[in-house]
Prior knowledge:
Elements: H1 3-82, H2 86-168, H3 172-184, E1 190-197, E2 202-205, E3 211-212, H4 214-222, E4 236-238, H5 241-247
Parallel strand pairs: 1-4
Antiparallel strand pairs: 1-2, 2-3
Helix pairs in contact: 1-2
The structure holds zinc ion.
Amino acid sequence: MPLIENLLALYSVDKQVRGxxxxxxxxxIYLNVQERQLKEIELEKAENSQQRKQHQAxxxxxxxxxxxIDDRVSHLREDLNKAVNExxxxxxxxxxxTLKEQRKAFEDExxxxxxxxxxxxxxxxxIQARLEERQTVLTSAAAELKTRETEIAEQLAELEVQREAxxxxxxxxxxxxxxxxxxxxxxxxxxxxxxxxxxxxEYSCSSCSLRISLEAxxxxxxxxxxxxxxxxxxxxxxxxEDTRQAICPAK
Length: 251
Ligand SMILES: [Zn+2]
């Protein structure tokens, strides 16, 4: 068979392979998006937990501090009772008052820290809800992908064999041209030539509708062994049999 006909055979099976795999591809893309979003939420969760730990550690430090202030104050109260003169009494009392002020400052700080922890706990609930929701979506996205893969597996395996057979009889350079155009146009690698006006010898590319030069047409009519690309969209051009008959009735 001439090259163009072999390419048309490959084009047909290649389109079917692409059509079949595109359903799986879109399910894969969707699953990837879900996975990425889940990772972001997990990161947010880890950050939230880290921040809560820091605030809680600070609260623990404050409580140790206030505890030792309390111990110190109760010792001083004993000293207060044992004070032998007014001067000693006033000195101890002054120290107690200073400690009470320090304790008050610690208490204020602890309240601020506790408020921060509470805010973070609220966010943690929200994060957890979003995480669970995303996991549910992710699970169903993974199941959907599996279903689609299973659905097409058998048919795809068959088509892959056909595609390989069709590709094997095409010369390497023509095949790589074909593959690269097919990749660019999601399988739409070939385009028929349409007759616009037979008398005026006007022809166009059925894919992009732009004018085909007479030179390109002549090359195609002359031999089916040459690849002629559309000057505008780059697709590989071919002539349908009825078009060929219309242009060259003798053949
Ligand atoms: Zn074109």
